[in-house]
Amino acid sequence: MHEQEWLAERFEEHRPYLRAVAYRMLGSLSEADDAIQDTWLRLSRTDTSEVENLRAWLTTVLGRVCLNMLRSRKVRREEPLDVHVPEPIVSRHDEIDPEHETLLADSVGLALFVVLETLAPPERLAFVLHDMFGVSFDEIGRIAGRSPVAARQLASRARRRVQGKAFTPDPDLVRQREVVNAFLAAARDADYEALLAVLDPDVVLRADRGSLAPATSRVIRGAREVVEQALTFSRFAELARPALVNGAAGFVVFDREGRPFSVIGFSVTGGKIVEIDILADPVRLRRLDLTALLH
To answer: Structural domain boundaries of the chain?
Structure first.
């Protein structure tokens, strides 16, 4: 076998792992695939005769690629960070696509990605690689250009922020679906009290409409304020289809031509909705493969 073919085969063996790392680092499957392609190009141009651990080598290269992408994103992003909803993984409401199972292991819900978006790039790198993938602080330090002690401090700082903000969702998907369906039914009927009944008093709603309409992107806090927003949604509720959004109960709203209008993810804790994340950015919606929901 030609050396390049052998290298390509080894790379493909590691692709699921690399995609999981890149998605959690970047919160976008399309950007994750770009980072993986960049990693492959660097591998294909490298003399690997002295590479003893290919997975570790690939993790180092991919980590640096993702770190540079996160830093570049911080510089160019114009919208406030707190209204940026990451690119979700959407599956049919009754099953997770096998291709997505590795990406969604360890309950990597959309709410966690929203918290990860608030971390500085080196913090996100350290937290994702160490806490999610068990990469040593020695390796993380080499990737980030920090000492192992500094890498440990980055992860610790990130962990405190994640634990302080991220909710633990109810594990029962059937119960999640009941709560989300109750929300949808109440929105369809414009039933104010029924909406209040399924919302946590401190519920947070994030609506990300993208760079084409940044003025309409917003964060709304509190049950009564979220109910007012939900009532304006009632005319679209008939067009909503159930889906799994990062493995949790949610739905996708299509227009009458079958084009996606928004993806809505929910975090349900203690039988109440504590977070609602709406991606209505037409540019990023076009990147999502939602055809399975139309059949």
So the answer is: 3-165, 173-294
* Nearest to 40, CA basis, from 55, 22, 62: 62
Q: What is the pLDDT of residues 86-124, one digit of tens each?
A: 888 888 877 666 666 666 666 567 888 888 988 999 999
* Residue 252: φ, ψ to 5°: -120, 135
- b vs e for 84-93, b when ≥16 Cβ sit within 10 Å of the residue's Cβ? bbbbbbbbeb
Going by C-beta distance under 8 Å and a sequence separation of 6 or more, which residues neighbour residue 88?
A: 110, 245, 246, 250, 263, 265, 277, 279, 288
User: pLDDT tier at 80 (50, 70, 90 boundaries)?
Assistant: very low
pTM: 0.84
CATH architecture of 173-294: Roll (3.10)
Residue 75, CB half-sphere, CA atoms under 13 Å: how many? 6
Q: Which amino acid is present at 19?
A: R
Query: Other CB atoms closer than 10 Å to residue 95's CB: what's the count?
Result: 10
Contact 191, 206 (CB under 8 A): no
Which pLDDT tens digit goes with each residue over 158-185?
999 888 776 677 888 899 999 999 999 9
Q: In the CATH hierarchy, which top-level class contains the domain 3-165?
A: mainly alpha
Report CA-CA distances (Å) from 286 to 59, 259, 272.
29, 9, 31
Dihedral of alpha carbons 289, 290, 294, 295, sign? positive
273 backbone dihedrals φ, ψ, rounded to 5°: -80, 120
* Residues 51 and 76: beta-carbon distance below 8 Å: no
Highest mean pLDDT among 71-75, 125-129, 209-213: 125-129
Dmax of the chain from CA atoms? Answer: 68
Question: CB–CB of 187/198 below 8 Å?
Answer: no
Judged against a pLDDT cut of 90, whether residue 137 lies above it is answered with yes
Q: What phi and psi values does residue 152 have, to the nearest 5 degrees?
A: -60, -40
